[in-house]
Amino acid sequence: MLQVNNLVKHFGDVKALDDLSFSAEDGQITGILGPNGAGKTTALRVLYGLLKAEQGTGLINGVDSQISPQLARKEIGIFPDKFGLYERLTAREQIAYFAGLHGLKGDEKEQALNDVITKLDISDIADRRCEGFSQGQRMKVIIAQALVHQPQNLILDEPTRGLDVMSTRILRDILLELKQQGKCILFSSHVMQEVAALCDKVIVVANGKVAAVGTPQELCERTGKTELEEAFVALIGSDEGIAA
Amino acid sequence: MIKTLFTKEFLDSIRDKRSVFAALLGAFLPPIMFAVMMTFVLEESTSVDELYITIENQQQAPHIVELLEQGKILHADMPEKGKDFELDGETVEHSKITITFEDSFAEKMHRGEKATITLLTDYSKKGARDEVWRVKNVINSYQSQLVAMKLVARGVSPSLLSAIHIEENDTSTPSSKSALLLGMLGVMIMVAVFVSSTNVAIDCSAGERERNSLELLIMQPVSTMQVVLAKTMNTAFFGIVGATLSVVFTAIAIPFIPLHKAGMAFNFDFQLGMTIWLLLVPLALFAAAFQLATAFHAKSFKEAQSYIQYTVMVPIIVPMMLEIVNYKNEVLSYIPIFAQQQAISQLIRGELDSYMPLLAGSVVTVITSLVIIKVIANSLKSEKVVLGL
Fold this sequence. Notes:
The structure holds two protein chains of two kinds. Chain A is built from nine helices and ten strands. Chain A has helices at residues 40-48, 69-73, 91-101, 106-119, 135-147, 165-180, 192-198, 216-223, 228-236; strands at residues 2-11, 14-24, 28-33, 55-60, 63-64, 76-79, 153-157, 184-189, 201-206, 209-214. In chain B, strands 2-1-5-6 form a four-stranded mixed β-sheet. Chain A binds chain B through residues 11, 45, 48, 50-52, 69-71, 73-74, 78, 80-89, 93, 97-98, 100-103, 129, and chain B through 1, 3-5, 7-8, 11-12, 15-16, 208, 211-213, 215-223, 383, 386-387, 389.
């Protein structure tokens, strides 16, 4: 369960978040849509406890990340906006590192490592150094390290960027499986088909505010359009920042 | 948690060829540089080169020829062209000095008459005066011995010849002669600590930021303090390895340096090596914190490199200057870098009276490092840094 309430945040004179509130429930995939600069990444960074909001709260399973960020972060797996692997570590070492950061130790850690490696089907590359991995392999390693501590919540910031069709499908399957397990998944994207196909709930963000919330179907109905892309444009009032 | 962080940092650095190479370079360079420099300086200052002159009518004065040879002034035929000639397959330089004993030299000496030696040379030639002085010095000392003996034979004390005796005393002691050079050795070992850890410091801060892995790291349930501590420990570890190797290599290299030629005595024994090493441990921590503080401000490896090449001047140039002017001040013993420079300098010169300043300096260095670590940890929390990711 992820929840942000009434976030307000300025960068200089620019109002990045303007009383932004939304929530992502367990057992659902929630998508955040918004043009570039709408405040998606800023909102997520506030939720991670990386940035301080001037007002409002960011709750992860009810823990306020503005007050106790480290405790709150234990309950999330993050697939960041820009991700870099440690090129000189093997995939296994990389995942083990993040398991360690989440406090896993000894047998428990080994077990978690083996589970996640099997689950993502990366045993063939697990003991190879990350340098030279394809974009798809990198994505799997990042997902594996985000999931190794079995968090209740998974946050993905534009996860399909740069992925080929096969990797995108794999990612989609992983997300659907996690949803089946009752996890809470929040992801931001520019790709409409992606959002339309996966999300149970879409939050449209523009100018640091929530412009609309609903299922893809509802949003289309509300705006009288047949495609989510058209609905999105109608909701934010411009076609800025859409990558189809 | 720190263990997890440190293990990863260490694994990451030890697999980075550039970091390992830099650490080794830092370790090897000072002792080698010092050994080469010392050997060169010593050879230059102490060895007397052979001087080749042409001696005509040698049979007239075999004693003098022998004395000249003892003074490494040897006979060689005047080369026909230029000043170089072949000797045992090597090209050597002829001084172009000719001394000629007159034909009746031996006979005149025998009779106690004034005998003549003709010295022929081009005085305008560079260094000619020194060479002539060497030749004349040998002949003059032969003459004064001869005169003294003649006086004794006539029952006159030779001391009448000299009314004044100039007593020459060289106040430079063996250890103060070597002090400057040995002080430089101390500075170089300190530099090794910095050089060995620079690459690691940049790689795990600016490098990690450049490769986009720093953002994800600080999003994890760890405090920035833990992250910075682990990175500092790893960087300091490389500095310590560099320092250790550098001290060991120096200990190995010193016996091969012909210090005795300059009348220097320097014993780089186990105790001295150990004390210097112990002093370097807090310095390594400081070097790590100092370089990380610089490198964390940079967004890329290259940017960090260009910052560090300037900031690292401070810990290198300033101690070197202090060493050259041999400046000592109580206060300096309580400032990181200077504390170590002063302590190592005193240790090497054998001037250390008390271990107290060493201890105090080390404590201050550790505290300063921790303060820097805290500052870095706080800066990683700042919005500016997060947004710069």
